Amino acid sequence: MNTNFSNPERAEVLIQALPYIKKYVGKIVVIKYGGNAMINDELKEQVMQDIVLLWLIGVKVVLVHGGGPEINEVMAKFGKEPKFIDGLRVTDKETVDIVQMVLSGKVNKTLVNLLESKGGKAMGISGMDGGLIEAEMKDKKLGYVGDITNINITPVFDLLEKGYIPVISTIACDKQGNAYNINGDTAAAYIAGALSAKRLIMMTDIAGILKDTNDENSLIPVVTVSEAHELYKDGIISGGMIPKVGCCIEAIYKGVEKVTIMDGRVHHSIIMELLTNEGAGTMVVGDKE
Q1: Given Cys at both, which of 81, 83, 128, 192 links 30, Cβ 3.0 to 4.6 Å?
Q2: For residue 175, with 0-12 CB atoms within 10 Å meaning exposed, 13-18 middle and 19 or more buried, which class applies?
Q3: pLDDT of residue 27
């Protein structure tokens, strides 16, 4: 990476970013964070830098995170082997306790600490705090995996009004106090919708929606909701991308302006997407867009 910019060149970069900065100052951007960007320390540092930069220029950033690899690591220490059905973790009572401990404890507080170390002001909460995410059991065969029944977004608005970056782990509970593991993409879509966020960014391990899954140069930069449904029918959106794009469409229906699926392995991809004309990943928009 070239760091030998002259001062005039640095100034020009900032001027070029000005229209984009004006577009997002005071607006809410939700970032779903997971995948390789989360387990690679260098990438994690850069993601946190991107978030703090956005926060410093006045963007209201909400970070929703997962932590699958960390959960698997702790499960192994307990002698438990992860099991998945249709991409969802089978979560018995002991496993949901592990998930809660890892996501709301270790992962959440590590991210808060990183944001603070970069100059941000962050507060970590779980979906259980303030009744943020209410859920019910999705399917008995999955155990304590939840379907979202309600979002009480007030705690997040309160943190944003106080100037914090809310960092949310996707653990929910029901009326009886049972804890549930919630799919991170689904939780991010519901939270972004409840916030009427301007943007939702889904960080993942591939470039975005590809016409040819074996060719990252076949990236589709923008799709409407109607076009996405056609891509489902044609089999272009397949495998693990099916539920992810479904969450993007859900977010659009819930009032989010634009949703981007992007490769979290690309350095500073968040800044490229929001503050340059280059963009990153695939943007999903409503048909009117």
Answers
A1: 192
A2: exposed
A3: 94
- The label of the residue with tokens 């489902």 reads 232
In Å, how far from its chain's centre is CA 278? 21
Per the listing, tokens 């960092």 go with: 167
Using alpha carbons only, how large is the chain's radius of gyration in Å?
A: 19
- 105-109 contacts at long range (C-beta below 8 A, 24 or more positions apart): 106/67, 106/70, 107/65, 107/67, 107/70, 107/169, 108/65, 108/167, 108/169
In single-letter form, the type of residue at position 24 comes to Y
Four-way CATH pick for 24-285: 3.30.70.890, 1.10.10.10, 3.40.1160.10, 3.50.50.60 = 3.40.1160.10
Each residue's pLDDT tens digit, 222-273: 989 998 988 888 888 877 788 888 899 999 999 999 999 988 888 888 888 8
Q: Which token pair is 142?
A: 């999955």
Sequence length of the chain is 289
pTM of the model: 0.91
Query: What does the alpha-carbon distance between residue 165 and residue 223 come to, in Å, rounded to a whole number?
Result: 29
